Amino acid sequence: MLKAVVFLYVFHIVYTGVFTGVMIRAILLKINYIRGLYVMNKLVKEIEQLKKEKNAVILAHYYVNDEVQEIADYIGDSYYLAKVAREVDAKTIVFCGVSFMGESAKILNPNKTVLMPDMSADCPMAHMAQVEKIEEMRENYDDLAVVCYINSTAELKCHSDVCVTSSNAVKIVKSLPNKNIFFIPDENLGRHVAKQIPEKNIILNKGFCHVHVSMTADNLKAIKEKYPKALVLAHPECKQEVLDLADYIGSTSGIINYATESDNEEFIICTESGVGYELRTKNPNKKFYFAGTKHFCPNMKLNTVEKVCHVLKTGKNEGGENEIWITTSVVEASLDIDFDYLFTELQDLNSLFQRMGRCNRKGKKPIDETNCFVYTKIDSNLISNGSRGFIDRTMYNLSKEAISEVDGVISES
Fold first, then answer.
1. For residues 88 and 308, what is the distance between their CA atoms, to the nearest angstrom?
2. Torsion, Cα of 106, 112, 117, 118 (10° steps)
């Protein structure tokens, strides 16, 4: 009897202690949650005030953190954000993405301030092609067009003939007069294009997106077995074995639009998981499952609300200056271009991007001289932090006089 009483007493003490401990932890978690909401709300209010003071706009790629997309003025893929950067009236652009996006925004907007919340946010694939290889290919093929995916550094773009997006790559490559195409930097997108245009000799480059190549056919089959009614939506940066199993292949925006317009209620998404924010926002009653075990980009996730606030306030972050600049070696010869025509009549940003490039290259003319948009003479030693490909912070004065000093620039004909 005594043992039973002792047991019950000890059990009561232990149970009460454990219960009390759990309650205390729950209360502390709740306090931290409320504190976090308070801090976040304070940051958001400060950002809104800073935007007014600095005449700034926040652009966010689909792959950044949910909370960053929530505070953004515009959310989209590389194509959409490049267009928005050109059209907005704001003097300052805060670009929540990776470095090549900031480069493109600055080249399209030389007189605007372009800030990156974290300058170390970079896309490894954007560097996965070499200028030496491009020149070697030009020596080997007389009839060669170098087609560059927009997800690339400014240096690679300036050594290319045409710049494309994942949504218009097939259309643009098919329209080129060239038989031989060197597609850089992404091998998988190049293969996807080649499969649809067998009449072209498309030479692939060994570049890849580490997020998309982490997705495999076996992984996709396992998810499909678990969710048999789900449609598979894949980005063309995925491997061919994944694309072969897809119900739809398209850009990030294309995937969002397809899921939104579809009557289906379940989808397996083969791209970076950050797109889930927009998918859930537009389709609250639909379910989305992500393929692969590494479906997030750590570089995109470097963009945080705290860093957005800090860079708006100071123009800097822990790593130093966060403003994108263009060098004297990267020149926009577009002072006479009718951009309203390019964006409204042609309805295709490639009409601008395909003129980025080799207009001044040793007697060679661009594929289309009309309304030519030029990157001119980037020197590798002028690229600061060359391994990351950031544009040298030497602001170029885009005056008529400065433009006239650049050799070989072709203006509107």
1. 19
2. 40
